[in-house]
Amino acid sequence: MALVDAFKSTRASSLSNGDQTIIAHTAIDLTAFRAVFDHAPCGMLLADTNGTIISANARLCEMFAYGPEALVGQKIEMLVQRRFHTEHVVLRHDYAAAPSPRVMGSGRDVTGLRRDGIEFPVEIGLTAVDTAAGRISCASIVDITERKRGELKLREANALLEEFTYVASHDLRSPLRGIAHLIDFIREDFGDTAPESAIHNLDRMTARIQGMEKLISDLLAYARAGKRSLKVESIDLRQLIDEITELEAASDNVRLAISVPDETFEGAETPLSTVIRNLVSNAIKHHDRVEVHLGINARLEGNHCIIEVSDDGPGIPSAAQQRVFRLFQTLNASERKGAGLGLAVVQRLVEGHGGSITLISDEETRGCTFRVIWPRFARSDLDD
Question: What CA–CA distance (Å, rounded) separates 30 from 8?
Fold first, then answer.
């Protein structure tokens, strides 16, 4: 109740002529605060500038397996592993000197220590409140054990998918190459005497084999896309996009409008290049007019690079927009053909590196825009 007493002192000192209305509102505010604090679904803890625990709600007590009487009056370091005590005291003093709302340990693994000595992963939000009794820090603590288990299962599933894809691709490529060689032998045996119908059928078989080989390559690309690149380098965004458009949009019928800052940032260049290249080639490939108008805009905002690839093609109907990022999804002839694996690979790459991708397409107007939000730094919290 120390925080409530502090708030009371703060409010009382600001009263003029003992205004009873303000006193009544103060009592209501404090009651509401206490109710929110006590019944919050996450752990809540109040501490003074010396790191002494003032109050803890029921969820925090349950999380750390302590009763409130065992926590109040103790140093907050009792909830931290002993090997981190010295470092935590330094961090606590640094925060007290320059308090601001923040997430503790952003980009790091942060753990709490239960009464029985078991460590568990947590997320911690900090904020400071100035009262008549002094500055008080409020921490919200969330147990993310289940999330970490889910992330581990996802990594394991990705590893199994990658392993299966590599094995399957090898087992499938070998017989396909064998069939392709047999077709070449048949062509040589026929020479110039082959009937036109036979040549036609051989061409069809060759096209089917090439289609199967492309599908296998796409599956490999999708499996690899789930693995985050650990190589971080300086990315010249303008140069990167110029290199991509020089290769993917070199046709005379492509009209480019590029707006990209002459800036660099640290990140994983190869996967980002793959993402932009896929979006550019996809926009050109599925365009339904002779002349293609393609726009590429990029800007740096905070910790992210935002890249938009727009076209004036037929667009993607709202009914199909939810499934274009799924595996093996193609739109029918009345919509837009052949998303295939390209967009699935793009989404997997973007999200695997801590970013996001959204599709913007209005049925009443032509064209669509893919917006990619890509981190400007290496996300250490995504490490295995």
Answer: 8
User: Which residue type, as a one-letter code, is found at position 161?
Assistant: L
Class of domain 2-143: alpha beta
Domain 233-382 CATH class label:
alpha beta
Question: In angstroms, rounded to a whole number, what is the distance separating the alpha carbons of residues 238 and 261?
Answer: 7
Q: Are 323 and 329 in contact (CB under 8 A)?
A: yes
Which token pair is 3?
């925080």
Please report where in the chains the tokens 């003992």 appear, as a residue.
18
Mean pLDDT over 205-228 rounds to 75
pLDDT in tens, 348-358: 889 888 899 99
CA R_g for the chain: 30
Give the separation between CA 96 and CA 199, rounded to whole angstroms: 81
Domain at 148-225: CATH code: 1.10.287
Enumerate the domain spans of the chain: 2-143, 148-225, 233-382
Q: Which residues contact 106 (CB under 8 A, 6 or more apart)?
A: 381
How is residue 171 written in tokens?
Answer: 């087992």
Residue 21: in which H helix or E strand, if any?
helix 20-39
User: Long-range contact list for 52-56, CB < 8 A, 24+ apart?
Assistant: 52/76, 54/2, 54/3, 54/136, 55/1, 55/2, 55/3
Task: Quickly count: other Cβ atoms within 10 Å of residue 347's Cβ.
Answer: 22
Collect all residues with Cβ–Cβ distance below 8 Å to 381 and sequence separation of at least 6. 106, 107, 108, 109, 354
Q: Does residue 202 or residue 28 have the better pLDDT?
A: 202
